[in-house]
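Example 3.2
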Amino acid sequence: METGSPENTGTAADEQAGTEQAVTEQAGPERVGTEQAEAERATEPAWTGLPPGLLRMRRLLLVVWLGLLAVGLALLLGMLVGPGWAAFALLPSALMAWGWVMLGRNWRSWRYAERADDLLISRGVLWHEETVVPYGRMQLVEVTSGPVERHFGLASVQLHTAAAATDATIPGLDPAEAERLRDRLTELGEARSAGL
């Protein structure tokens, strides 16, 4: 009796190699997809969020202004209309709780990224907005800091371009980071505009 037929002439090693090749071919598109995803992630800009000091400042201002409004409303309604009407002073308190959450969401939505040719600024929770400012179009980069911002150790960077609609601001940065960003953007802007 013959043990091998013309159809079964391969050895076990040949069968194993064929199985490994089939498995590699099946995993090929997945591997290529993974490599493409890694390449896309490598080209993604490195986003930088805003420091938590901005959130603390905004929340403190919210509590101070709405707290004063609630106390003033309670006293005014309590003396003029009656103690029952003073319950309307809870409305600013409810608004304060809602604003507390919304300020946190808004703060988390702000971020910026420095790319080779432009600066990206992303913000917004309900209406997401992303601004692209090419370095060669920048005319002026300012660092501003009001009295409240200075108290919290914060500064804002404002970018001015030829078109007023594309002016952009990055609020609540550490002053050293704001100055570094201003110097870098000014340097890149001069280099790009010289090439035009």
